[in-house]
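Q: Sequence in, structure out?
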Amino acid sequence: MNVAAIAVLKEIPDIAIAYGISDEFSFVFDRSSNLFDRRKSKILTTVVSTFTSYYVHLWLSHFGDKDLSPPMPSFDGRLVQYPSKQNLRDYMSWRQVDCHINNLYNTTFWALVQQGQMGTTEAEEALKGTNAADKNEILFSRFGINYNNEPEQYKKGSLYGTQKPGPLNSNVPQSQKDQGVEPSKTEREKEKKARAKAEIKLEFVDIISDVFWEARPWLLPDN
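A: Exactly. Output:
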């Protein structure tokens, strides 16, 4: 999943960041992107097909001892245009909260099954109605597991992005921008190559707090 997401970022430099948890990825486009004239169906199908093709292509590089067989991997997607910066932040926060909730449940569930010798149905029943504090108590008191020491990737998800990408349309003279003139195909290709060469960084960080967004002002520009 992660290497397929990196491939999408390299193929589509208009994407500012990608955030992945479990079997899903969220791709956030640069606000100034005019990719495919902002046609939703074109953008959506390109992202999904690019992700899927690289997932299949790179499979053997990571699971060489297990060939793919039908049913073959496939992914769906949806494209949402959020009307405000706060809406985008709320969405990203929701995904990270979901990551934490699901990982805490799964960590506790499999501890009960693998170390507590419970059946899967019995473990599900044992966890019904429990909250986060209850699950942490089960992990620590019964199995000596401190959830805070679990790998950050699983607790916070995987965030990919360039440290500080150059702005889209940076090669277009300001006079043309003021007149609404679109960059030429050659200019777009140069820009795409430059952004594609930017180093993609992997982070396991808190994307809910103000600190994350204040350190990356280019993700939520004012204009």
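Residues 148 and 156 are 11 Å apart (CA to CA).
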